[in-house]
Amino acid sequence: MAAHQEKKNSEERKHESTQNNVQTSQVQWGRAWEVDWFSLASILFLLMFAPLIVYYFIMSCDQYQCSLTDPLVDLLTGNAHLSDIWNKTPALTYRAAGIYTLWVTFQVFLYVFIPDFCHKFLPGYVGGVQEGAVTPAGAVNKYEINGLQAWIITHVLWFANAYYFHWFSPTIIFDNWIPLLWCANILGYVVSTFAMIKGYFFPTNAKDCKFTGNFFYDYMMGIEFNPRIGKWFDFKLFFNGRPGIVAWTLINLSYAAKQQELYGQVTNSMILVNVLQGIYVLDFFWNEAWYLKTIDICHDHFGWYLGWGDCVWLPYLYTLQGLYLVYHPVQLGTANATGILMLGLIGYYIFRMTNHQKDLFRRTNGNCKIWGKKPQYIECSYMSVDGTKYYSKLLTSGFWGWARHFNYTGDLMGSLAYCLACGFEHVLPYFYIIYMTILLTHRCIRDEHRCSSKYGKDWNRYTAAVPYRLIPGVF
Ligand code: NDP
């Protein structure tokens, strides 16, 4: 019996190491089973105000040259009423509805019907059918990783149209930006509501559903872990990684085309934003298989937070720098442009290398070299609910010896570079770095809370060995 248990444990340990050590008890991961008042208040706030925030930012550019204060001043001094602002806002149009429907349908087609061919000729690229992490109920989903291919096909068609076919103007996205916002909202709400109904009545994997009994919390944070239609249409991967992120670079290209149309040239700041964000987006697609093991896919359920967030928040607020530069075409001096480019590239390098070091370390179970040396680490263990003990390792070499979330630090440096490219005249383009700082700091705390309850005193040994979270010596 004991031998049997030992064999079982060693098999599980082996299994765990191949799955990036994500197996743990249901109580320790994913979203909560019970809602506290603070979470509920935050959720109600976001449900009510997030769509208004997006509208306010986009409207400020459309009607107030990207000033965030002028609309408020106008409203408070009686120069304008809410109805004046609303009446000047472009309505939903058939044209925008047609563009948006075509766009989403095309991305669904690329996602579902074109198996990946990039991995067959791109050395080092991991595509095709890949396994995700073990879900809390013990399921392992398979995914067709073909995002890079979808991105390439879409962009080839975009450039073919811009330089050869001329079916539509490359400014099409900018020209329909607010009517498209209504379409994105409709899709965001439809998909989140559908996901909620699906979670109740026909879940893909009933054992991976979580119900708190609180309607708003369940709607926001999701019930199903991995809702799917059929074998391959995975909601979380599709909405996280297709219509919004593939569009990100096209939206920026459309802004650049608008600058060209309005001013007869594209400024170096616009080129910087296009290049730096383009690298970030391409990195996402190149590493899509790795992305299956990140917190977004491994821990979050699919609700409004992801459904609406991916359809509206991401494409509209992550692209504010390019939108701003259409209204304020900043031409940077050579020294400033070089400095911002360096900051963006160094930030990207840190972000990528830190993620790579952890991935390599976990994949090889520590049998690798980090910065030319055998890695140092803290041995740790944790228990699952059935009392089985598991072993894991926390890396303390390379960037992981500098701070506990140096990947976030690199991400923040890159984010700051996009914002700095817009100069200092307005705060609107700085929304991204403010938002990312809040998001990633909150994520640090959320993740560390989870790791601390998972690893207990071993986590304390790790935090003693690597005392800072983001900036060595500071925080
Ligand atoms: P991480 O990739 O940092 O993963 C955190 C997990 O890694 C922990 O829960 C723990 O899991 C494990 N871990 C923690 N410390 C160590 C260590 N020293 N050695 C080995 N494993 C460790 O976090 P995310 O998934 O949040 O982020 C991935 C990337 O995505 C980041 O670079 C981030 O910047 C980026 N990102 C970008 C966003 C955007 O909107 N642009 C949003 C969110 C993230 P375990 O239980 O396995 O031990």
UniProtKB/TrEMBL annotation:
User: For bias kind Basic and acidic residues, which ranges apply?
Assistant: 1-17
Kindly provide the name given to this protein in its UniProt entry.
7-dehydrocholesterol reductase
Function of the protein: Catalyzes the last step of the cholesterol synthesis pathway, which transforms cholesta-5,7-dien-3beta-ol (7-dehydrocholesterol,7-DHC) into cholesterol by reducing the C7-C8 double bond of its sterol core. Can also metabolize cholesta-5,7,24-trien-3beta-ol (7-dehydrodemosterol, 7-DHD) to desmosterol, which is then metabolized by the Delta(24)-sterol reductase (DHCR24) to cholesterol.
Q: Which family, according to UniProt?
A: Belongs to the ERG4/ERG24 family.
| One Pfam family this sequence matches | ERG4_ERG24
One GO biological process term is:
cholesterol biosynthetic process
Tell me where the signal peptide lies.
none
Q: Membrane topology for this entry?
A: Multi-pass membrane protein
Q: Where in the cell is it found?
A: Endoplasmic reticulum membrane
Q: Region entry Disordered: which residue ranges?
A: 1-22
Q: State a GO cellular component annotated for this protein.
A: endoplasmic reticulum membrane
EC assignment: 1.3.1.21
Q: Which reaction does it catalyse?
A: 7-dehydrodesmosterol + NADPH + H(+) = desmosterol + NADP(+); cholesterol + NADP(+) = 7-dehydrocholesterol + NADPH + H(+)
Which InterPro entries does the record match to this protein? ERG24_DHCR-like, Sterol_reductase_CS
Pathway listed: Steroid biosynthesis; cholesterol biosynthesis
Transmembrane regions listed in the UniProt entry = 37-58, 92-114, 148-165, 177-197, 302-320, 332-351, 415-440
Provide the GO MF annotations for this entry. Answer: 7-dehydrocholesterol reductase activity
**Any keyword Magnesium?**
no
Alphabetical keyword list: Cholesterol biosynthesis, Cholesterol metabolism, Endoplasmic reticulum, Lipid biosynthesis, Lipid metabolism, Membrane, NADP, Oxidoreductase, Steroid biosynthesis, Steroid metabolism, Sterol biosynthesis, Sterol metabolism, Transmembrane, Transmembrane helix
